[in-house]
Amino acid sequence: RELRIQLPKGxxxxxxxxxxxxxxxxxxxxxxxxxxxxxxxxxxKMTIPKSIIESFGQYLHSAIETSxxxxxxxxxLDELLETGFSxxxxxxxxxxxxxxxxxxxxx
Length: 107
Hints:
The protein is mainly α and 107 residues long. The chain is built from four helices and no strands.
């Protein structure tokens, strides 16, 4: 919220301000949703059925791998912003996003 308030309206950005604010909103929601799910699972003392433990482990591994890739892509977006969306940084970020998309589909 604070970042959204402090983001100057007059600053020229290489992406629409509304897109950037939407991204910030989505990023802020992820930990809230994860916390809600964890609270629900713990309060209900939920366990994973033995019949799906192996599949769930594979899913969990894929989800973690996807999260790591998303984090790397976000870090590279900072670099891309600094270079003004030019040079070889664009290709690197595009490749990371393609990989992230594939991981997301697999997960």
